[in-house]
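Q: Sequence in, structure out?
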Amino acid sequence: MAASELYTKCARVWIPDVEEVWKSAELIKDYKNGDASLQLMLEDGTNIDHKLDPKTKNLPYLRNPDILVGENDLTALSYLHEPAVLHNLKVRFIDSKLIYTYCGIVLVAINPYETLPIYGTDIINAYSGQNMGDMDPHIFAVAEEAYKQMARDERNQSIIVSGESGAGKTVSAKYAMRYFATVSGSASEANVEEKVLASNPIMEAIGNAKTTRNDNSSRFGKYIEIGFDTRFRIIGANMRTYLLEKSRVVFQADEERNYHIFYQLCASSHLPEFKNLKLSSANDFLYTRQGRSPVIDGVDDTKELCSTRNAFSLLGINESYQKGLFQVLAAILHLGNVEIKDRDSDSSIIPPNNRHLTAFCELVGVTYQDMSQWLCHRKLKTATETYIKPLPRLQATNARDALSKHIYAKLFNWIVEHVNKALITNVKQHSFIGVLDIYGFETFEINSFEQFCINYANEKLQQQFNMHVFKLEQEEYMKEQIPWTLIDFYDNQPCINLIEAKMGILDLLDEECRMPRGSDDSWAQKLYNTHLKTCSLFEKPRMSNRAFIIQHFADKVEYQCDGFLEKNKDTVNEEQINVLKASKFDLLVELFQDEEKATSPTGQVPGTGGRTRLSVKPEKSRETSSREHKKTVGCQFRNSLQMLMDTLNATTPHYVRCIKPNDFKLAFSFDPKRAVQQLRACGVLETIRISAAGFPSRWTYQEFFSRYRVLMKQKDVLPDKKLTCRNVLEKLVQDQDKYQFGKTKIFFRAGQVAYLEKLRADKLRAACIRIQKTIRCWLARKKYLRKRNAAITIQRFTRGYQARCLAKFLRRTQAATIIQKYQRMCVEKKRYRQKQAAALAMQTILRAYMARQKYQALLREHKAVIIQKHVRGWLARCWYKRCLVSLVYLQCCFRRMKARRELKKLKIEARSVEHFKKLNKGMENKIMQLQRKIDEQNKDNRLISDRLAGLETSYTAESERMRGELGRLRGVEEDAKNKGNQVNSLLEELEKLRKELSATQQEKKTIEDWAQTYRDEMEKMVSELKDQNGSLKKEKDDLNRSIQEQSQQMTEKMARLIAEETQQLETDLNEERSRYQNLLTEHLRLEEKYDDLKEEMALSSNVSKPGHRRTDSTHSSNESEYTYNSEYAELEEGSRAAEDVTRGIDTPLTLKLQKRLTELEQEKQSLRNELENKEEQFQRARARDDAEFKKARGAELEYESLKRQELESENKKLRHDLAEMRQSLLGHPATGAGAPGSPAYKVLLDQLNASCEELEVRKEEVLILRSQLVSQKEAMQHKETMTEPSVYVEDVSKLKDADEIKQAYIGLKDTNRSPRFMCKPLEVSDLLSRLRSAAPDFHKLNEDGELWLVNQGLKETIRLLEHQLQTQRRSYDNEVEALRGELQNVKEENNRQQQLLAQNLQLPPEARIEASLQHEITRLTNENLELLADDPTASREARVIILRRMVDLMEQLEKQDRTIRKLKKQLKVYSKRIGEMGAGQAEGQTSPGQMVDEPIHPVNIPRREKDFQGMLEYKKEDELKLVKNLILELKPRGVAVNLIPGLPAYILFMCLRHADYLNDDQKVRTLLTSTINSIKKILKKRGDDFETVSFWLSNTCRFLHCLKQYSGDPAFMKHNSQRQNEHSLSNFDLAEYRQVISDLAIQIYQQLIKCMENILQPMIVSGMLEHETIQGVSGVKPTGLRKRTSSIADEGTDTLDSILRQLSAFHSTMCQHGTDPELIKQVVKQQFYIIGAVTLNNLLLRKDMCSWSKGMQIRYNVSQLEEWLRDKGLMTCGAKETLEPLIQAAQLLQVKKKTDEDAEAICSMCLALTTAQIVKVLNLYTPVNEFEERVSVAFIRTIQTRLRDRCETPQLLMDTKMIYPVTFPFNPSSLALETIQIPTSLNLGFLTRV
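A: Exactly. Output:
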């Protein structure tokens, strides 16, 4: 169809825009040919009229369908043009956070300015071995493609990384090299890959700097060749550098920095090793402060210098050379600070003793005078004379800067040279991969010589890129046999000719440099004259005569001619160079000796005689050097660029184009203008243009058929897919030129895929509409029928309801009439009663009022009579009082007269002191008595109420006496008045007494007030206490409830904590187990490597090693820990063998292996130490818990102590019984002690039975005691440590009710007899309420602090009880341990006695005594050894006793021999009698029952025929044959099918049993060692065979179980039969060998997992992701140039059925081999983990797999896996849980992703996925059809916000190499060893059954 037909209504197009470059719009009207404009609507709803160009009539670009937006490959877009490319990159970068995109053969990398977790080792492993189109775009995919092509095609590769400054070129190149180093490894043990990576920090330090566009910009270009050997492992590298920006050393623009190394040195100037450099802050040096930005945010220059120094050391540059490098760099900084001043207008001078010049001279070893001379002067040579010309200050400064640049350039080249030397190895290089990190196209406001060279290099690279792209397109067309038409593409050869051809810009520049008076202006004029009219790519600016313009492939660039000649010449004052060459500093001299070979930095440090290096050279050599020195920079750059292009043309290139998204370094911010500029400059759009010119869209026939099957009718589908596609395309697309049919693909023109997608979408939309129509009709009819039925039902119920309502209304009407009748009657009755009550009330009130009036009148009359009576009485009394007063007055006058007379007499007496004292003595006594009473009142506060009454009574009496005394004094006063002058003194004394009396009265009043106040306060306090008591009772009840709740909560909390701690311990155990098993794996790898090296050395030396030598694997089996005497000789032999082997091995390699083995052993030892430390910590914690337990409980061990005493007594009794048994056995030899009918036999049986019963009883008692102790300990472990009052409160709170508290309180009172506890006791309820208060304050609970005293007493009691408990506990533990040991000894002795008895009963009489004697000797020997170990002095006494007993035993043996002879004679006699009596009667008489009745005549039990004991005997020389036939040459398939499972393990164990039976330690050890080594050997030989590995895993586990089952350990003998217990090992404890074999089983298990993973890994992605199990659910989207693995099931493609069949094969194989069921479950769990992890990792790295339909496919596949588990009965093995992340990822693809509710559902659903994985899936989600919607950025941010608080690792991918730690649960066998038959097919005829 015509292109104009696509411009219909609703079609979307791109129109130019000033801000966004391109803007999307939608047609609102169909376009018709001839229209001058288009009616468009923008995305914001604005309608515009877009004018078309009247000349070209070019229509705007069409927009791709939404399902094509965000594709991994830009060439997969249907419309290939600039806006489509820009939009696709923007969507991937902003919405999906994807920084990599393919554009054909180019990888476009956008700098995110943010650290992304996509470069880890897990990502490298995920991309390793994958096809480039199968995974999402990544720098690792490009590196993998280059590595794969190098290995497959054996052709050198190149990765060209380009882009402008800040685009991320260096980082991309670094990651590519890291990928090669990780994937390929190193061919030697020299860690070359680490050295290659270590060169990065060095080159960044000396070649990178901060610019305005990039904080770590590379200011030079480099090409690194990474060399590989024939096995494609890294063997070395080589680096070439291009065009270092030397001008940055002396000048930096604003916001820029010098090279990083200078700032690193300044930041580390405080270190001791840098003191001699005399450095300081970077702001103190001219060369580092010009940019005014000495610090980079987030970068620590001190740490960076440490990294740089470590890299130097790793590359072999020793400390001496590093110090020299830093000296040169510091000297450059000091040289920049040398200040040059004007002497006059034509000369300059450096002031003497310049500090910085002095430091420079000291650092570089030159003289101050020479350097200062030649910095300000220059030597000019003519034909006849030499002149020294002074330089002006400006020229001298320039000369100084030129010298600095020259020194730095020499230093840079020296470092690069020695880095290359360190990276070169002696191994021959087979191929290489080159990584080119070079500057991109640059254009600035002012462009100079550097930009000219950079753009020239980019022109060359772009030409090579265009030719390569064109060549690939041509090859693709020819491969598919498509008619080839020449595609026109941009050829920049004219621009290159303008620059480098003859009479080009570089030639003219070199010519002008050779001119004596050449200048930039003259060179510019030559350029104008030569190229202005002849070359269209060369232009002259209108306003300048010193600039020129070149039309590059990316843009026009204007270059300023200023400085071109000077930079091209790069001249340095020769005399300055000579001064430096004469330096005493060896490194500096070496820098300037270009002709001589430099000394290796890794060798010895050269001597101090630096001048000896400057030998006088011939004149010819100097001339040659001079000519080389005069070579211009442009010429050198052109030559090196040509060499680079030759190298790139000889390799297969891979292109990485780095894009800088914005100029402000903002994370994930996209500036379309800047992006378009770089896309045009880096050639991406040119690639698009070349692709669009032909057939850019390419589909395989199968993909086309699968995608567009909906456009075909049933009759169009033919068996031949190719023919079907051809027929359909001819119908759909009429223009034959729009597509071409190739051999395997269909090629489409640009836009045709979009047209086909439009047809497909229309067809699907029509089908959807039809389906919707039918469904809606069906839904509407169902709705109508439901409504009709509902309406009928509603009518029926409504009519019934109305009828019921009518009946109800009639009933209510009748009821209302009746209610009205009775209600009206009630109203009238009520009204009548109210009126009657009102009348009665009024009558009552009136009568009451009249009665009250009458009563009041009578009352007034009565009161008036009473008043009259009292008034008349008062008048009479007043008259009486007046008369009485008159009489008293008369008496007073008379008495006064008499007193005056008496006074005169008393005055004389009053003058004496004694008399006065007598008068006052009584008063003082009274006052003191009152004071004493007041003090007594203060003391008796508690009884103040009772005393107060007595005090008042006494005080009343005292007052009466005082009144009497006062009367007497008044009489004396009357007498004194009569006496005259004596009365004055008495009056004065009387006044004093009155004052004292008033004071006493006032004090009394105060005391009374205080007493009243105290009484009130006490009453108030009592009431408050009563209230408080009530509230405390309530609080008590509340606290009881809260205590019960808290106890329940504490129980739940402790249960939860125990569960968490248990889970944590299990996790720690699994981690430790995993670490241990990983160490075993590493140890096995090193072991195998060591064995391989030994074999290689043995083959190379061709020296046979006679005799058996112990291999290193024997040492790995921990045999060094065994205590066999014969091991020392073998160790010596092994060491001699190791020495012989070591002589032929490379010494450094051997040392490295030994070092690695030592490190592993140390790590293993450290792990063991760590485990021991954890055990010690656990023991300490347990001890602390025990201590707390002891502190918290009192006398609780009385019962246990009684039990202990009882056990001791019983133990003594048992010992006594045992002694009696021995005496009965040994004391009566003549009576036939061993005969069943003897008395000794009876005693023995009785005592044994009694002992067994007693032992059982004691066992139960010990178990009871142990359970009690454990329960007490567990109860105390729940107790938390708090302060003492809180501990006491917690203990009280644990008491359930008041009775318990009462008992505790009574016990406390009985315990504490201290006087201070004898206060008034508290009530139990008060104590309970106070102790359970929320915040008890024991000092303020009551006024006398008695509860506080109780608490203190409790504390002391607890301390006392704690001490007693601790002492008792310690003694109890010791006694219990002793008792346990004694009980165990008694039990073992009893068992031995029983075994001895049973064995003796089976032996003939002559052998019984000998066996008993041998057993007794063995027992005595063991006791002797124990005594010797415990006490040497006691052992000597024991020896004497043993010798005596041995003498007694020998005597007893002689007696028994005599007895045997007598018994033989008797036997002959009895045999004759038996023969006469008959065989049957003889049997009845000789029955055991009769023998018991006749102990005097014992008859021997007839000896039974010997049975097979489950042992196999072999000769020592047959051991190799046994191992060979049973292990090395055994076919697992035949054994698994025809014989019992685990037969080799049973045979080996039976052989081991026989060696143990013989007590042959050498045979046991050699058999086990040979077995282990042989299993390792067969696994090494056939380790990739799953059947072999599974077979030996099963047999190793069975052998391990046999060692446990027959070890004699009671823990492993629970499930044994009696016969199996008899087969236990008797002489050797092989517990250490069990550990060795367990380690071997772990290694086999890991090898099994690895073998299984190698088989499953290639099938997982194809079967779980790519294959469509449900056909037709998902269609294939268009693919780009990178071919993607087809999801259609072709022949040979792995499907889900393939995976299930393989899993079934694994399972059946393990079941046939008899693998333990628990071990099978672990293997299956690991299998499912690998399946889930690999599938999820590929899902996270493949955008094309993240769709709704793929989620459905994954869920279906997982359900099939679960069905397989269900069929095999493995649902409980934990395999399903390992698939949970994959299941949740599939659910995430299918759930709705729009609203906040959806986000909440996703967060609650995806618990097994990390936040990074959830966000990654949402970012990668891609609609396959137009009906699906993309996930919005806002929704993803909502998810990130909700998941922000998750604590998890940021790792994106699952670890596919993770192996769950394996355990081998004990699985005893019920198979009896004596029943095992050895088949003849095993060729084990040399084995004899015993």
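The chain has a mean pLDDT of 77.
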